[in-house]
# Entry
Amino acid sequence: MFPRKGGWISDPQFMEVMKSSEMLAHGLGKPVEDASTTFEVPQDGEYRLWVRTKNWTAYWTENSVPGKFRIIIDGTDTGTVFGTGSAEWHWQKGNIITLEKGFHTLAVHDLDGFDARFDSIFLNMDDHEPGDIEELRRSLLPGAAVPEEKGNFDFIVVGGGVAGMCAAIAAARLGSKVAIIQDRKVFGGNNSSEVRVGLGGRLNIGRYPSLGYLMNEFGPARKGNARTADVYEDEKKAEAVNSEKNITAFTGYRVTAVEKDDEGRINAVIATQVDDYTEIRLHAPLYSDCTGDATLGVLAGAKWAMGRESRDVYKEPSAPEKADGITLGASIQWYSEPAGEPQSFPDITWGIPIDEETVQNVRRGQWYWEVGMKDDMIYEAEKIRDYGMYVAYSNWSYLKNHSRFKDEVACEKFAWLSFYAGKRESRRLFGDHVLTENDLRGFVQYPDGCVSTSWYIDDHEPDPDNAARFKDPWLSRGCLTPLDFYPIPFRCLYNRDVPNLFMAGRDISVSHLALGTVRVMRTCAMEGEVVGMAADICRRKGCLPRDIYNKHFDSLKTLMEKGVGDQTKPYLQVYTLIDTTAERSENC
Ligand SMILES: Cc1cc2nc3c(=O)[nH]c(=O)nc-3n(C[C@H](O)[C@H](O)[C@H](O)COP(=O)(O)OP(=O)(O)OC[C@H]3O[C@@H](n4cnc5c(N)ncnc54)[C@H](O)[C@@H]3O)c2cc1C
# Structure
């Protein structure tokens, strides 16, 4: 653990795969301040230094490696450059260090500001390479092996994006005792200042126009992607959750395991603190998966889908003949700012080759800077994020140092690049109904239609010019299918395999094509609002999510007609109209 992180960031987004948070030196090309800590050794002796790290650009280049760092013990460099070697996480061997029994200082010194990373530093006397990181942690950190009990709740929401926030607040306002578990330290998911995606879609529409006032209470008053942090109003979101007396919020905790009963219901979740790996256990009769990635459902053994279904699965006219793993890509957004005086940026030798034809003379990496459509959004998520950063650095370095536009950008500072991959699609869970393109285009009405869509089917594909020039394309374009506002069946919001699990957000029960409309955040938020209402009805009636559809839909209707939002609050929504040309603009 690093009590003094300096300029290093603790990043938990890849924990499902790498089993740790990583410490990241995200200095945008300027070395970050050292992280430092103290440690104790039990006896005098010779200790081998090991660091778990990776060489993040090794997938794409053999040229001089960025992301290098050194380890300083008691003020002396230990003599190894770390962050080199394999592209996969591995234990990199350092030198043997002579240490006396007692306390010592350790600092991690970034060398280039280009995303050096590590998750663990280990010293041993027997010179054996340390093994599996989880086993090692469990054997060495007592808090990581015995979860602390955090009590019983009526409803546990996992994931604190806009869908999870609305699910938690709605249930809490109706009287449920709620826990919300969010792995990052701020709420809002893609709409937080970490990812910076503006809210899309509309609130207060369709069959139940009172749905959406809840999101209006904490949604930012300004719109736009990749703007300055203040636009996303993180504090307002935190206040919205923290001011609810019935909510206990666990931020900085990631759900990593579940416990189930004999009937396949979840009866507890285990969450891991993302910095010190201590564990907590929480119990409830009802849960909602609002993780985006369907992590809770997958941990509970629910079936899931990812990628495009073949046409014969749902008979969707726009589906490909053969299924493939293609998803909507992830975006690593960025922007530059005018600084009023000349600004330098390293002339990198390790980037993707950019030339006068491919260089993008822009000041903002918008939604269409999109990567990873053909990759696995879960297991290759770090590589996808890294590729997004790699192309952004490569383009900016060429633009600034070589391009015909270099005088135009001389005083521009590369000011922000998200280290969070903004994901649009990964795993989708199954409910008792799977919403498809046919439902949407045929406007098929179901009695349990609830939240209304308000976006076109907005599928994406690689930009053809970019794809012709790069093996892994990094620019995309939208393919829009017009739609009427459509009421999503409630049966898409609870899980067919795990009886006490709801879903809200981008992991609900829809086909790849239908995700193209339901995924926008105002729609996700209203899904959360309905799920929170349904969870509270389950508490009062002592029933399960499916029973709401079968027996208690009238109770849900009554709540949906009212909504749980405060209708007296100023209406702050600034709606972005769908650009029906799907034009790529820096300013959307
Ligand atoms: C670049 C880009 C542009 C987009 N454009 C728009 C747009 O213009 N308008 C629009 O409305 N939508 C847009 N979208 C889509 C939209 O942002 C997503 O579909 C939406 O954020 C999904 O909401 P969610 O709550 O399901 O997931 P998220 O916003 O991803 O929130 C999920 C939260 O759960 C947390 N979490 C995940 N796993 C765990 C776990 N195991 N334990 C605890 N917490 C966990 C995550 O950290 C995250 O904070 C865009 C997306 C991108 C990336």
Q: What stands out?
A: The pocket of flavin-adenine dinucleotide is lined by residues 158-164, 181-184, 189-190, 197-201, 225, 254-255, 290-293, 295, 331, 333, 367, 422-424, 505-506, 519-521, 524 (CB under 6 Å).
